[in-house]
Amino acid sequence: MARVGVLALQGDVEAHAAALARAGAAAVPVRSEKDLDGCDALILPGGESTTISKGLERLALYEPLRAFAAAGHPVLGTCAGAILMARAVLNHPVPSLGLVDVVAVRNAYGTQVDSFAAPVDPGAAAGLEGLRCIFIRAPGLRDPGPGVEVLARVDGEPVLLRQGQRLVSTFHPELTADTRVHRMLLEMAAG
After folding, report:
1. Is the CB of residue 85 less than 8 Å from the CB of residue 75?
2. Do residues 48 and 58 touch, judged by C-beta distance below 8 A?
3. For the chain, which has fewer Cβ within 10 Å, the N-terminal or C-terminal residue?
4. Does the annotation count 133 as an active-site position?
5. How far are the Cα atoms of 148, 161, 167, 187 from residue 124, in angstroms, in the given order?
């Protein structure tokens, strides 16, 4: 059974753990560098990106997370996690890990009251057709670099991107019963 670390500083940790269990993997809470030992993949969950980035700084986790990704382990960042994985952050920037060649725009879809759900546009990557996306204070993803593949869009805007072994999602795949995004991470971990 795959062991997937879930950064457990703040955010959707339990929902990701439940989604991983439904997809056939074990979730491992990550609060320190040592917690990454034995993990096959990692999820940076949604939550509040400022709070999470301060926790990463306080616990000296920026470099261990970069090293985990550099070692070829798959990493999925959802919502705030996508912000933290971007090469740059706009709209009240926070320090990022620079793992994906994209610019994240914080709260691009509005505030909490502007939350919504929508299906992906036709033309999504194979296997993602009809995926329902839940957006909560979601970031926008702009200026993807040449090595970044747009896997899905909603209303023409990129919402799920892949660069090598790294995935970023502006929506919350853990808040539905659909495990396709989590299974994609597990397939990447399996090689």
Report:
1. yes
2. no
3. C
4. no
5. 15, 11, 15, 18
In this structure, what CATH number is given to the domain that contains residue 67?
A: 3.40.50.880
Q: Is 172 known to be catalytic?
A: yes
**CA gap 104, 126 in Å, rounded:** 25
Residue 172 CA to residue 175 CA, distance in Å, equals: 6
Shortest CA distance to 100 belongs to which of 51, 60, 150?
Answer: 150
Q: Which one is catalytic: 79, 92, 157, 187?
A: 79
pLDDT of residue 72: 97
- Give residue 144's domain range: 3-190
Count: domains in the chain:
1
Contact between 95 and 129 under an 8 Å Cβ cutoff? The reply is no
Where would I find the H helices in 59-134? 62-70, 80-85
The string of pLDDT tens digits covering residues 115-165 is 899 999 999 999 999 999 999 999 999 999 999 999 999 999 999 999 999
**What pTM, to 2 d.p., does this model score?**
0.96
Q: Which residue among the candidates 39, 133, 174, 182 is catalytic per the annotation?
A: 174
